[in-house]
Amino acid sequence: MLSDFTEYLFDVLQINKTDPILLAVSGGLDSTAMAHLFHEAGLNYGIAHCNFQLRGKDSDEDENFVRQLASRLNVPFFSTRFDTTAFSEENKISVQEAARNLRYRWLHETAEGNGFCWIATAHHQDDSVETMLFNLIKGCGIRGLHGILPKQNKVIRPLMFTGREALEAWVKSKGISWREDASNAIAKYDRNKIRLNVIPEIEKINPSFKKTALASIQRFAEAQEIIDVFVARLKDEAFEMKDGRLCLRKSAFTFGNANRTLLYELLAPYGFNNQQTEQMLSRFDAPPGGIFYSPTYQVLNDRSYLILLPNKTRQKEEEYEIGEGMRQLEVPEGVFHFEKSNEVPTEFSKDPNVAWFDARKLQFPLRLRRWKAGDRFQPLGMGGRSKKVQDLLSDSKLSRFDKERVWILESQGRICWVVGHRTDERFKIDESTKSSLRISWLPGSFAERHQPSNHFHKRKS
User: Fold this and answer.
1) What distance in Å separates the CA atoms of residue 158 and residue 120, rounded to the nearest whole number?
2) Alpha helices, H only, 239-293
3) Which of 128, 203, 365, 368 has a CA-to-CA distance to 77 between 20 and 30 Å?
4) Is this structure's pTM higher than 0.85?
5) What is the domain count for the chain?
6) Are 123 and 159 in contact (CB under 8 A)?
7) Residue 390: exposed, middle, or buried by beta-carbon count in 10 A (0-12, 13-18, 19+)?
8) Residues with Cβ < 8 Å from 114, sequence gap 6 or more?
9) Structural domain range at position 280
10) At 196, is the secondary structure helix, strand, or coil?
11) What DSSP designation does 115 have?
12) Is residue 273 in a domain?
């Protein structure tokens, strides 16, 4: 088990042996096994635990168990508590979705704030099979059929090389104890029904179902990679700028029945769903003038093009003021974190999503907005020479599609940071710096499912 674990972690997931990793540990069999595997492998890790306060005394005992586990393994321990039920009711989502949103948001914040490179969850092969079935039953495209991704942004699943049965045999052979969640044995939730009722029935037809399902999941994932490469190549051919508007050429859709999937893949990043793209396709030959709306964009059906325009209401919302002392700002694609310090750093992260500034050179409130034509700044390292943001993005070989989503951070009308690309020379840390501001950008879909925090207010237009 240990050799298979390290081979998967280093060779398949390509994690460096010295990378600090934050483990999400609930106290159950899977996550407890993961913690012990990291310990036996002599890796650099810490343990994080979320108490969702859904099971009364049992939830508190889980937290205490994980705290003691971290103490025995002599690693850092982080914990938090959520009023999950209240969050679920306030945001009108299920308790399971509320717990997932809260968990991942807190894990990202904890990892970023404590220098961890990765977040590890204890999902394994059985979980991936259950996820595929769950998505298939609910309805999904090919993305929903490749189960749980082994590696996604900063989240890794280092147990995806094995299944629950093997993990249980291993922990028992080691005399390792864990906490049992009684709710896992009750067919109350959809995933439990799949695990307890659906899969056993399928295995009566095909005793090797899990093995064949995992092989299918791999093929679905490979097919998705092919689709992603194809769509990426088509973007620059299909999209063009006309009179300052982003236009999608109808003539690019020459793939018969596959046009439906292709149109969805091209427009999904703009907030359009599958039903809307099907309607657009059905009206390709209709008289021009029909309009479709997403939360962020509108599509106008023209004679030869689908014309994308920012949704005016949403466009106003896509400007944010950042007050002095603000710790966090959530936007549709992710989260910004702000950390002011009276200490001056001597080393800087090479991560393009992390930026450092001389705090005294900034004038609050800062302004966050989308980039626009004509934006110009003084890129760090160019000795004060100015450059158009548009040229910087072109040099980075961003497609027109990706350029649309680039954020700009300003101080009193002067650009401080082209987020994810380059900071400005005028705000850099130098010998005279007395205090610093560290800003990190964490892109991730968890922010799209969570209401913005109350710690910021949107700029009025």
Assistant:
1) 7
2) 259-267, 274-282
3) 128
4) no
5) 3
6) yes
7) middle
8) 22, 46, 76, 78
9) 243-313
10) helix
11) T
12) yes
